[in-house]
Write the structure tokens for this entry.
Amino acid sequence: MDNLEELVMHLYEIQAVKFGQFQLKSGIYSPVYFDLRVIVSYPAVMNQVASLLFQCAKNNGLKYDTVCGVPYTALPLASIICFSNQLPMLIRRKEAKDYGTKRLVEGNINPGETCLIIEDVVTSGSSVMETVAVLKKEGLKVTDAIVLVDREQGGEARLAEEGIRLHSVCSLSNLLDVLCKNRKIDTEVVQNVNKFIQENSTYKFTKQNGTAPAKKMCRELSYDARAEQPGVHPIAAQLLKAMEKKNTNLCLSADVTDCKELLQLADTIGPHICVLKTHVDILQDFQPEVIKELQAVAEKHEFLLFEDRKFADIGNTVKHQYEGGIYKISSWSHITNAHVVPGPGVVKGLKEVGMSLNRGCLLIAQMSSQGSLATGDYTKAAVKMAEEHSDFVFGFISGSKLTSKPEFLHMTPGVQLQSGGDGLGQQYLSPEEVIGKKGSDIIIVGRGILAASDRVEAAQTYRKAGWEAYLKRLSVPGDSCHSQQNES
């Protein structure tokens, strides 16, 4: 029994959720009723609810400065969340006092900050909107609300129309499934409740130009939230956390031929990147000692090393190329990559070496050069191969997002501030196009930084452009599809 299922059972046992015939404020009778006010008498349940609400916000990658519970049931929940996680809290009164400060919102208010709303149950969303309105009058921003139970009667849609994204720990459908599975209610009760919900929606979609509303988009998970998703490769998790911590999705393609220049680049650009991509075989003065120095710089600046080897031979050959020779790539490079032309044998060969060393692999599914054959069925085959070997493969070299599965990362080469191309077939895209429009995760920049008169300044510019595109992508409204899938 997982945490959510355990909570549902506790709520039923303490009669926080009841089944029968209950008259609602609107006058209609409902076959289900939530009375979450009783949980204040059950500290263990209170803590469990608060923990799941906070985890829901974290899983959805929400960014906020302060927290406010909708009065009154959600107030103690917000208090526990804020106390446990050292977060600032605001208290909204239902009515202003006619003495003292006469304020509707208590606490330290900083206009311009973002406030996260906490609620126990949402039906129409009206209580949330009342709180939003009061907070906005104080100059606060409100973009998201976390609710324990969504009754699925139109509240989410109504809030979305007002620019508020609703994230639920549990839907009424989920709750019914748990109680029915554990024989607390029978199928007849489930059917009666479902019928009531369908017939009593509080929100009606409006059609525009005679067409039904478009299907909602899944809301983007943050890098940090993706790192916590089940099934994420350890290297992917390490990389995603580093990206979030350093506020960078920039990979430097260090295509230089001198070891001293490589180490200097790594040290000066290191604070601004999440990955350093190398072509170790073009170093004209390569010595094994250079690798030790490079590893030390990577650890110092918290970026990962990616040897862009592009393995493309049979399994037995790539196995020896990966672990042997003068470069011994597997001993130091966190990430490597491979073409899928040889078939799954290339991944199996690399995996035999890399798995025990906790290494990860990217598959080359698309390329940035003009006339590339890595398109169509070839790209689909790369995605399929990655899914079949996700214990070693954690993403793609690609021009765009190829799969919606959050455990796979996409790294895109050929990025410059201005779109265009060179005389050798390289096609360039801007950070905004790559991250914002094409949905990739990491921009790979080489000449845009290496050819600059001030390489550090150029790296800072690319880092800022890539990160702003990512933040803009996060701000696009949508459903919390990923978290709902994990809860079901």
Notes: The longest strand covers residues 115-122. The longest helix spans residues 455-474. Residues 8 and 175 are 6 Å apart (CA to CA). Residues 205-217, 420-426, 482-488 have pLDDT under 50 and may be disordered.
